[in-house]
Specification:
globular, 12 helices, binds zinc ion, alpha/beta, three-stranded parallel β-sheet, six-stranded parallel β-sheet, TIM Barrel, 9 strands
Length: 300
Amino acid sequence: MKVIDAHTHTWSRDIISERDLESRRIAAERLGVEPVLDSPIDTLRQAMTTSGVESAVVLPVDSGFDQKMPLSLTEKTDWHANEVRDDANIISFVGLDPRRGEAGLKELERAVKEKGCRGWKMYPPNGFYPDEKEFDPYYKLCVDLDIPITIHQGFTPRHKHVKYARPVYVDRVAADFPDLKIVLAHVGYPWQDETLMIASKNPNVSVDISGWQVFASTVPLKVYLMIGDAKTLKVFPNRMMFGSDFPLFEYAMTLKKWVEFFSRLQLPSELLEQGYKQVREDEIERVMWKNAARIIFGET
Ligand SMILES: [Zn+2]
């Protein structure tokens, strides 16, 4: 089965802040694993080959609004754009904090029109609610440029603020901009119910399942329940996309194993007895690549 990974990251320690590096060390210590301080694109390419992932989306984060960064915003856009420039199978979004106002709007347009970025990665835990009225020009511009926004939702690292990552703060935007394509990352864990409700009521909202390999490798029932609920609410199968958050969860489950787990996913009989409907292979195929091809790559 073809696979598109809608949520990956590349970086090197020279382009992120000291505080963000420290967050990675803290997270690794909590988990008892080695911190991932660099994520070179070659490692992503290798993992894609090993796992049978044909295409991937790189999602840079802009943490430079209120902390000192090694690169300026435009330099960072260029760093990511140049990394994927000659690769037909890996695309990059632009990472942008909408509190940057006019300058941010200009950068969004430049990133898409001149640097080939294919969407916008928004990271609210840096300190803002997505539904601030002052950000509306950004949403309008995304509609005009016909690009999707992937919004980080739910669980965040040590120095970020999780209150901003609640799905309910995306609803006003989704409702007011019906042509705006919004992807709620990580199915908003631990607010998966809230995420699925927002996606259920707004047909322009989809979800990515990145990060859920943590449960697939420990308590897979949590994955099955979430998929069963998503199917009941009609978010599965047409508005859910496969994603990994590579390389952040390799310690829990490798990309290859995550692909295998999800492409063969079947709900257990205990859930079917409770009324959940079994998932079909053609539905899983939509999640593995068809939805991303349509929503992110613009294929019809
Ligand atoms: Zn991520």
